[in-house]
Amino acid sequence: MADCDQGYFCEVCREYVDVVTESDLYLRFVMGLVMPEDLMRAVERHVRCRPSLAQYVVDPNFEPVLDPDPATDKRRQPEGSVRAMESLVTRAWRRLQELPGSGLSIAEYPLPEVDPSWRDASFEGADPTLWLMKKLGIVKVHEI
Predict the structure, then answer these.
(1) Coil vs helix vs strand at 23
(2) Phi-psi bin for 101: left (phi > 0), alpha (psi -120 to 50), beta?
(3) Which of 44, 43, 53 has the alpha carbon at shortest distance from 23?
(4) pLDDT in tens for each of the 144 residues of the chain?
(5) How far apart are CA 55 and CA 59, in angstroms?
(6) Which residues, in sequence order, are CB contacts of 83 under 8 Å at separation 6+?
(7) What is the C-alpha separation between 125 and 90, in angstroms, rounded?
(8) How many helices, marked H, and strands, marked E, lie in the chain?
């Protein structure tokens, strides 16, 4: 999407991610996991093609996703942790759905509580779901 608001090919399914509302990259940006300067460089996926994150979207307009990876499957996580992640990811997904035609600048896309400086070097190369759970204190560092 980036500069021209056109999508890229999904690294998982190789289909085109042609709208921002289906973009895992922009979902993570709205959540504060991707910095603006990384939008042009980061790989793209459909939201549904990253089940570790998509499983936390709880909305009647989003068909539930099951994560096949035991390390990130929410059914194996403590209920309180799951509720916290569902709240955050669902709010971010709903925000993503509102973006087209909103007139917001890209700097206004992230959730209001996102502080762009909170991202640190420990994220590089990490699964975004596990990294976020670590940052939120949902899992311990040694569990990642």
Answers:
(1) strand
(2) left
(3) 44
(4) 444 445 589 999 999 998 999 999 999 999 988 888 888 888 899 999 999 999 999 999 999 999 999 989 999 999 988 999 999 999 999 999 999 999 998 889 999 888 655 544 445 555 666 666 666 655 544 444
(5) 11
(6) none
(7) 24
(8) 4, 0
Give the start-to-end residue ranges of the domains of the chain: 2-143
Amino acid code (one letter) for 18: D
What are the structure tokens assigned to 79, written together? 């209920």
Tokens standing for residue 34: 């991707």
Residue type, 35: M
Q: Give ∠ CA 123-98-72 in degrees, rounded to 5.
A: 35
Can you tell me which residue has the tokens 């670590």? Answer: 134
The number of beta carbons lying within 10 Å of the beta carbon of residue 120 is 9
**Dihedral sign, CA of 83, 84, 87, 88?**
negative
Give the distance from CA 140 to its chain's centroid. Answer: 20
